[in-house]
Amino acid sequence: MTGHFLSANLIPIVNSLILGLSIASIWLIAALGLAIIYGTIGVINMAHGEFIMLGAYTSYALQSSVGLPFLLCIPASFVIVGLIGLLLERGLIRYLYKRPLDTLLATWGVSLVLTQVVRLVFGSDPKYIAVPEMFQSNVQIGFVNLSVLRIFIFALTIALVAATVFLFYRTRFGMQVRAVMQNKEMAASFGINADRVYMVTFAIGAGLAGLAGSLFGVLAIVLPTMGTAYVVQAFLVVVVGGGTIIGSVVASGLTGELQSIFAYATSDTFARFILYLLIVVFLRFRPAGLFAPAKARR
Predict the structure, then answer these.
(1) Burial of 51 (0-12, 13-18, 19+ CB in 10 A)
(2) Has residue 244 been placed in a domain?
(3) Is 246 exposed, middle or buried (0-12, 13-18, 19+ CB in 10 A)?
């Protein structure tokens, strides 16, 4: 009887912890592209939220006009938004790499332009991405009821992190990226084209944001301003993680679980307040984040 009572009391806590993992996976997907751009190039991309929004609208347009299945819309969003990011880097960002304040202001201006362009093309009314039937059911594991869509997003997050870590730590391109980060001039003396490394890295980061938007589009309504709701958490995850990929993984897990636990004990709004307050206090004593780069970028 006592064991049954304890089990019943643990059910909400376990559900809260699982919800925290779901929140963490969403935040991590939103932050992954930002962590790559900021951690590798050192650019604070204020248009990252709008890249997420473009990914959602890309999936909506492909699904509604072409009839492309949602599972194919996900990689398509990565490619299309990645190409948009590549054009932005070639046309604007590459001229501002040594001017961080100008880069911040420029990308903020780009975010305003992208929002208005989407509003003119698609209108301001909310759009909806159809959820595939296979994702509309739930899975019962013990006393825990899990959405198939949430399970898919969590599994895709793990796959994306693994692929990103492999790309940047186990491939020749990743070695070139790390060399440019440590010493751009020395890397150039070994024949590494830093300009090309920056271009590809920015395109990958933008593509990951577009992929994130494709996933977020099935979780909520699609609006021209939707990116703002995700970019704040993405920046917090990257800053707390120290601008590294591994740091962002740990930071998203901690912040997601903390928000879920605080929301269970209080309310969602108050939970966000407590979480943001804790992050401010943490950064006061450790401004470099959890996993700061070993050496400064040159």
Answers:
(1) buried
(2) no
(3) middle
Judge whether 186 lies within some domain: yes
| Burial status of residue 190 (CB atoms within 10 A of its CB: 0-12, 13-18, 19 or more) | exposed
Judge whether 285 lies within some domain: no
**pLDDT for 294:** 53
User: In total, how many domains does the chain have?
Assistant: 1
241 inside domain? no
Q: What is the pLDDT of residue 143?
A: 65
Q: Give the structural domain span for 181.
A: 24-228
Tell me how far CA of residue 178 lies from CA of 167, 171, 184, in angstroms.
11, 11, 10
Q: What is the mean pLDDT of each run of 10 residues along the chain (298 residues)?
A: 50 70 81 85 87 94 91 94 95 86 90 94 91 81 75 89 90 88 81 89 93 88 88 86 86 85 80 87 87 57
CA distance 6 to 242: 39
249 close to 241: Cβ distance less than 8 angstroms: yes
From the CB of residue 290, how many other CB atoms can be counted at a distance below 10 Å? 17
pTM equals 0.88
Bridge pairing between strands 144-147 and 138-141? antiparallel
